[in-house]
Every structure is written in structure tokens, then in C-alpha cells.
């Protein structure tokens, strides 16, 4: 069996990223570290390496059990990697799920019909005040 593999291929084969291109982009953008050092997509992965993957807001950590380059079924993953992510990271993930949708991120597209109606209701100004309403600035 092969004792080493390219990092981008291993990330794809271990099902951490959906495509090898996404894995390579993550490496190029500095989201992947091997044993604490930044890693390029062509970096060689060996048995026992600790790989940290930053997927905001969480940083996952895996130990390489088998460096593979061919994608395997999800049931075989315990033979390929060991998840050693700290429990605090999962707490951060749960907190972000609980907090829910706070605002629309820039570039997420047009508001939905519901969003537009909420904006219209918020910005709507009454056209005229009642005739009975007597407002005198001097009394304030």
C-alpha cells in the first residue's frame, strides 16, 4: 500500500472536500496546515500527520491513518483518518447554529419577497397626520 499521498488528493479521497479543486483552493488560501505548518496542495501526507482544516467558524483536526489517493466509501473513513477535533470547536459550531440568521451577507443575491415586504413596512412613512393632532415645538 502507498505510504504517502498528495495533500489535495487525500483531502478529496477522505471526503473532507467535495472536489479536489476545492481542496487545492483551501490549501492555496492558507486554510490547511500539516503539523502546524501551512501546506501547499502538492505537499506529501504521511501516516501520523495531523491536518487542521479551517472551515469557519470551526477548525477541524484529523490524524492520517492511511494516506490514500483514491476516494473511498464513507463507511471506510475510520480506516483512513481519525477525527481529533477539540470538543470546544463543536461547541462553537453549535452556538453559530443556534444564533441563526442575523443579517444578509454581502453578495447573497436579491432579497426575497418576504424580505422586501419587511423592508417596505419598516421604511413606510405615514402620509398625513390626523387633523386633530396639534404639535407645537415651543411646548416641548
**Record field, number of beta strands:** 7
Structural class: alpha+beta
Determine the strand fraction and express it as a percent band. Answer: 15-25%
Helix count, DSSP H or I runs of 4 or more residues: 5
Helix content: 25-40%
**How would you spell out the order of helices and strands?**
EHHEEEEEHEHH
Question: How is the main sheet built?
Answer: 5 strands, antiparallel
Query: How is the largest sheet built, in terms of strand order?
Result: 3-2-5-6-7
| Average of the residue pLDDT scores | 84
Distance from N terminus to C terminus (CA atoms, Å) equals 86 Å
General form: elongated
Question: Would you identify the regions where 5 or more consecutive residues have pLDDT less than 50?
Answer: none
Radius of gyration: 26 Å
What does this structure look like?
By secondary structure, the chain is an alpha+beta fold. Helices cover 31% and strands 19% of the residues. It has helices at 7-13, 20-28, 77-80, 87-99, 113-123, and strands spanning 4-6, 32-34, 37-38, 44-46, 50-55, 58-64, 81-83. The strands form two sheets. A five-stranded antiparallel β-sheet has the order 3-2-5-6-7. Helix 1 crosses helix 2. It is elongated. The termini are far apart.
Topology diagram in text:
Elements: E1 4-6, H1 7-13, H2 20-28, E2 32-34, E3 37-38, E4 44-46, E5 50-55, E6 58-64, H3 77-80, E7 81-83, H4 87-99, H5 113-123
Antiparallel strand pairs: 1-4, 2-3, 2-5, 5-6, 6-7
Helix pairs in contact: 1-2
Amino acid at each position: 500500500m502507498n505510504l504517502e499521498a498528495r495533500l489535495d488528493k487525500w483531502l478529496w479521497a477522505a471526503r473532507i472536500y467535495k472536489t479536489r479543486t476545492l481542496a487545492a483552493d483551501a490549501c492555496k488560501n492558507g486554510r490547511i496546515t500539516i503539523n502546524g505548518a501551512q501546506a501547499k496542495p502538492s505537499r506529501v501526507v504521511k501516516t501520523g500527520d495531523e491536518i487542521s482544516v479551517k472551515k469557519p467558524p470551526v477548525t477541524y483536526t484529523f490524524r492520517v491513518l492511511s494516506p490514500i489517493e483514491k476516494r473511498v466509501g464513507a463507511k471506510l473513513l475510520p480506516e483512513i483518518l481519525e477525527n481529533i477535533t477539540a470538543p470546544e470547536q463543536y461547541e462553537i459550531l453549535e452556538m453559530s447554529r443556534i444564533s441563526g440568521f442575523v443579517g444578509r451577507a454581502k453578495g447573497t443575491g436579491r432579497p426575497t419577497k418576504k424580505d422586501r415586504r419587511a423592508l417596505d413596512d419598516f421604511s413606510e412613512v405615514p402620509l398625513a397626520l390626523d387633523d386633530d393632532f396639534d404639535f407645537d415645538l415651543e411646548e416641548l
